[in-house]
Amino acid sequence: MNHDIKIFAGNSNPALVGAICETLRIPLSRAEVGTFSDGEISVEIGENARGLDCFVVQSTCRPVNDNLMEMLIMIDALKRASAGSITAVIPYYGYARQDRKVAPRTPITAKLCADLLTAAGSSRVLSMDMHAGQIQGFFDIPFDHLYAAPVLLDHMRDHGFTDPTQFVMVSPDAGGVERARAYSKRLGSTLAIVDKRRTQANVAEVMNLIGDVRDRDAVLLDDMVDTAGTLTQAAAALQAQGARRIVAYATHGVLSGPAIERIVESPIERLVVTDTIPLSREGRACPKIQVLSVAKLFAEAISRIHRADSLSSLFV
């Protein structure tokens, strides 16, 4: 890898950043990211960045606001250090679910975060499996959108989902149908949809199942699992309709609140997530949860951005 590239990181996901650097065969660049005694975030870049391609890797997961501010301040520090370019690498983009006004006098926080990243000095943004694809249009700078599909599809094939007569790809809600259809097309399987009506934030009620899952394995697919209400209620509906076994896949394992308990008590046999968000102690201890790494995808994307190569060929 060219020496004109620098990888910096905040405190949100050190394991993923370490794996990215190991794949690229470059050391993690030095930066002191901490707090002052009053809680304000302190950043000091520890090496020369003048004229170089700099990548700041930071998932804006819990604690969301601290991680977001760390990223913004690091970007500002690099801009003032005369970095040649600054790419904000955000494996998990927080506030992505606030992408439109759902009631009068409410914010569009995903757009606000986009403005903050641009104002801080980002030259480009790289993220994975955005909750809403239109968020890419909130930016006035280039946005590269990665997909966990190559990693998740390989895992599905390696774990027996090769005979399309034996399993069904399932979207847990209407909003994820396009994603589930893309996976089912790759695997040659049929598609089912769980019709869900949400009564309030983080509360979901399953109403109906569209499609046939009887005597077949059901593969639930979502972009993220937060409180796991949608996923576990969908699993219950699949079980009631005669699904043989139920496994779930999601890119982002937010797993907040009662998520772990719900997954343990649900008919879901296994939940597979990626390492865009580090798991809590409870998540790591849960025997039903398996983590796949997307470090190689991010490393390849960073390499291609640095070389000014195409990223789209990664997902052909």
Q: Strands, helices and their partners?
A:
Layout: E1 5-9, H1 14-24, E2 31-35, E3 41-45, E4 53-57, H2 64-80, E5 85-90, H3 109-120, E6 124-128, E7 143-146, H4 149-158, E8 167-171, H5 177-187, E9 190-200, E10 203-210, E11 217-225, H6 229-240, E12 246-253, H7 259-265, E13 268-274, H8 281-285, E14 289-292, H9 295-307
Parallel strand pairs: 1-4, 4-5, 5-6, 6-7, 8-9, 8-11, 11-12, 12-13, 13-14
Antiparallel strand pairs: 2-3, 9-10
Summary tags:
316 residues, alpha/beta, seven-stranded mixed beta sheet, 14 strands, globular
Task: Characterise the protein shown here.
The structure is a single chain. The protein has 316 residues and is of the alpha/beta class. It contains nine helices and 14 strands. It has a seven-stranded mixed β-sheet with strand order 10-9-8-11-12-13-14, with helices on both faces. Strands 1-4-5-6-7 form a five-stranded parallel β-sheet, sandwiched between helices. The chain is globular. The two termini are 24 Å apart. The model has no long low-confidence stretch (mean pLDDT 94).
